[in-house]
Amino acid sequence: MNTTTLARRTARCAITLGLSALLATGALAEEREWPRGHFPLPEAGNVIGENYTVTVQEGETLVDLARTHNVGYEAIRMANPDVSIWAPFASTEVTIPNQHILPDAEREGIVINLSEMRLYYYSAPGIVETYPISVGRDGFSTPVGVTRTTVKVKDPHWSPPRSMREEAAARGEPPPAVVPPGPDNPLGRHAILLGIPSYLIHGTNRPDGVGMRASRGCIRMFPEDIESLYERVPSGTRVNIIDQPFKAGWAPDGTLYAQSFPPLEENEASFEPLLNAIETVARAFGDEQPPVDYARLRELVEQPDGLIVSLLHTADEAPTPAAPPLEVDGLFGGELELGAR
Fold first, then answer.
1. Torsion angle of C-alpha atoms 302, 307, 313, 315, degrees rounded to 10
2. Which residue range or ranges hold the L,D-TPase catalytic domain (predicted)?
């Protein structure tokens, strides 16, 4: 894409957006206070929200701030690598990573991006909601695929799975066969069952762990977030569980952004992260030749932190050569074997 083409794209985006562009940039957003996790859905592009900073108050932890600002544990840790999670100094400025690229998936129902540990809900025309989640830890992976919500249960009973009972028995701590509703119930007070047997979207009695790989495959949410979804998500809602550790998307002003997350350990051998990122960027451009800063892209893949970064060269930068297809082996240091996840 040359400078003229990029300028035309920028102008076209600005004209097309209309009211949504004003909402996204904050010109009209001040007139409406959006509920927690809610964003106007852009008519052009796929970037929502914005990052901002807050100041730590005496006695606050980063985990406290994460929950207050709709962020998960790993997201706030990666955005503030030099700040103590549990004992930050008062008056420290903390980055709240509240800008997101919408996943490359159909904008319908619920979309869960595992590597990002975030849920997106297209709840109404022109609106998308997003919330941090916990997903299955290594050895108890949350499966990818399309399913639907089935039954909703308030104050659920919990039956520990056989594997957990066996592990606890081996430690001399056999759990009860059934845990009744209450503060010791790991499902929290609300659960939405999925069409995949034994998998749920539910609350938790340990909210500090939201945003980690901490479950046995289920999707955990902050209690206030699952309560909100429980009241509004109809049974039969489509749920698309995907795994996109690298995302690319356009902002309303025509800037190409990317966002990279640590890949799930069990999927690291199924694809080459850098090649996957280049392919993702190529899809964002279509048939046009992108003025992409490939050095910046590679750094983003090798040091993922979940923050959105611009990948386009500025006007005064000399563009790095695009990686030619025939040099893939040299670029990545060996023959690649791609998976289909």
1. -150
2. 108-242
Q: Please state which of the four CATH numbers 2.60.120.280, 3.80.30.20, 2.40.440.10, 3.40.50.300 is assigned to the domain occupying 109-242.
A: 2.40.440.10
Strand partners, 247: 259
Domain spans, the chain: 1-49+244-341, 51-97, 109-242
Based on the residue annotation, tell me whether 202 is a catalytic residue of this protein: yes
Burial code (b: 16+ CB inside 10 Å, e: under 16) for 19-51 equals ebbebbeeeeeeeeeeeebbbbbbebbbbbbbe
Per-residue pLDDT of the chain (341 residues), as tens digits, is 433 333 334 333 333 333 343 344 444 444 568 999 999 999 889 999 999 999 999 999 999 999 999 999 999 999 999 999 999 999 999 999 999 999 999 999 999 999 999 999 999 999 999 999 999 998 889 999 999 999 999 999 998 877 777 777 788 877 778 899 999 999 999 999 999 999 999 999 999 999 999 998 999 999 999 999 999 999 999 999 999 999 999 998 888 999 999 999 887 767 789 999 999 998 888 777 668 888 999 999 999 999 999 988 664 444 444 444 434 333 333 332 323 33
Fold classification of 51-97 (topology level)? Membrane-bound Lytic Murein Transglycosylase D; Chain A (3.10.350)
Largest CA distance in the chain: 70
Structure tokens belonging to residue 172: 């001399």
Clarify whether 13 is annotated catalytic: no
Pairing of strands 238-242, 219-220: unpaired
pTM above 0.85, yes or no: no
Q: For residue 209, give the DSSP letter.
A: G
Catalytic-role residue among 38, 100, 190, 202: 202
